[in-house]
Amino acid sequence: MRVLVTGGAGFIGSNLVDRLLGEGHEVQVVDDLSSGDRANLAAAARSERFALHELDIRDPRVADLAAGFEPEVICHLAAQISVRRSVADPLNDARLNVEGTVSVLMAAQRAGTRKVVFASSVAVYGRPDVIPVPGGAATDPRSPYAASKLAGETYLAAFKALHGIDYTTLVLSNVYGPRQSPEGEAGVVAIFTDALLDGKATVVYGDGGQTRDYIYVDDVVDGFVRACGEAGGGGRFNLGTGLQTTDRELHTLVAAAAGAPDGPGFAPQRLGDLPAMAVDPAPALDALGWRPRTDLADGLKSTVEWARGRRSGQ
Ligand SMILES: NC(=O)c1ccc[n+]([C@@H]2O[C@H](COP(=O)([O-])OP(=O)(O)OC[C@H]3O[C@@H](n4cnc5c(N)ncnc54)[C@H](O)[C@@H]3O)[C@@H](O)[C@H]2O)c1
Q: Which InterPro entries would you find in this protein's record (predicted)?
């Protein structure tokens, strides 16, 4: 299969690229390297079935290269990923995430692409009453980032209705794992890992009781690969564990994996922080045969091992 991955030099995208190449697919990446890193694609670059195009997804040349490559599937992950940056500059967020997604869909239309698999976010659920959030729950965007992700989802449906391009939306909870930069939506794992390995102070906000649903990157990649097939067409699926982990519990687990003391400092709760989040992945099991497989403690061990290896230059 030929697959175009936007944002393929980033944390999740580069892990997806490696898995697709490992399965024998032809993979091309469009990434402007704004937050991604060429080093994430070092292994991929050794494959003859791989190419990186250093371009903004809104660049008209993306449609030209897609028309030449004729990808059967486009996995669309390129995005402005920070909720806080979206609040500070909503217009920039809309340009990257709305205009960017429409540009990718237009490229898909011209290239005759069968399906687009889209990375959405649990941010679209706002402050949910029921946790874990069920698959079909109502959306309630409360940040420009959530609004731009939801707009992307809506455009997928419009392009399917108009041009017959199939799609699957994957609603990602807090993804963690190797190659994550400390600035991501779930950057707290990377932040704790870096600080604890470097013997620096760590901070937990509020009483440490805020919860998130941490999902390992290999599991998320598995969801994307499954969605590249026919299954799940026209659907949106939560990719999470359904389990809530408090900030304080997470700190204990990362400290144990890093062999560091479990003594974070505490700072006042940040305004606007969501008190709790987890999503129910059951519909993804029915439609895609997907389930989360990686236990949090094991995933954190692999993440810390990767961060250690990077420090020793491996
Ligand atoms: N990490 C998470 O926990 C999480 C949670 C929910 C949703 N998501 C979504 O998953 C996707 C991947 O996130 P990630 O954590 O790997 O982030 P990332 O920042 O590592 O990856 C995003 C990639 O997109 C590229 N990019 C950004 N704007 C671009 C543009 N205009 N043109 C071309 N490339 C561009 C960046 O250089 C980067 O390589 C994003 O769409 C994000 O919104 C991530």
A: Epimerase_deHydtase, Lipid_A_modif_metabolic_enz, NAD(P)-bd_dom_sf
| CATH 3.40.50.720 domain position(s) in the chain | 2-176+215-241+279-293
Joined tokens for residue 123: 């941010």
Residue 278 to residue 212: CA distance in whole angstroms: 6
Comma-separated ranges of CATH 3.90.25.10 domains in the chain = 188-211+244-277+300-311
DSSP string of 98-140, one letter each residue: IIHHHHHHHHHHHHT-SEEEEEEEGGGG-S-SSSSBPTTPPP-
Q: Is 223 in the pocket of ligand 1 (CB under 6 A)?
A: no
> Residues 217-260: pLDDT tens digits?
999 999 999 999 999 999 999 999 999 999 999 999 999 999 99
Mean pLDDT of 159-168: 98
pLDDT at 182 over 80: no
| Residue closest by Cα to atom 30 of ligand 1 | 56
The model's confidence at residue 312, banded by pLDDT at 50, 70 and 90, is confident
Between helix 247-258 and helix 296-311 the angle, nearest 10°, is 50
Q: Which of 3.40.50.2000, 3.40.50.720, 3.40.50.300, 3.90.25.10 is the CATH number of 188-211+244-277+300-311?
A: 3.90.25.10
Check if 185 has its Cβ closer than 6 Å to any atom of ligand 1: yes
CATH 3.30.70.260 for domain 2-176+215-241+279-293, yes or no, is no
Question: What pLDDT, in 10s, does the model give residues 86-130?
Answer: 999 999 999 999 999 999 999 999 999 999 999 999 999 999 999
Mutate to test the pocket of ligand 1, among 35, 149, 181 (most ligand atoms within 8 A of CB): 35
> Span 38-52, mean pLDDT?
98
CB 125 within 8 A of CB 147: no
The tokens for 218 are 């290999």
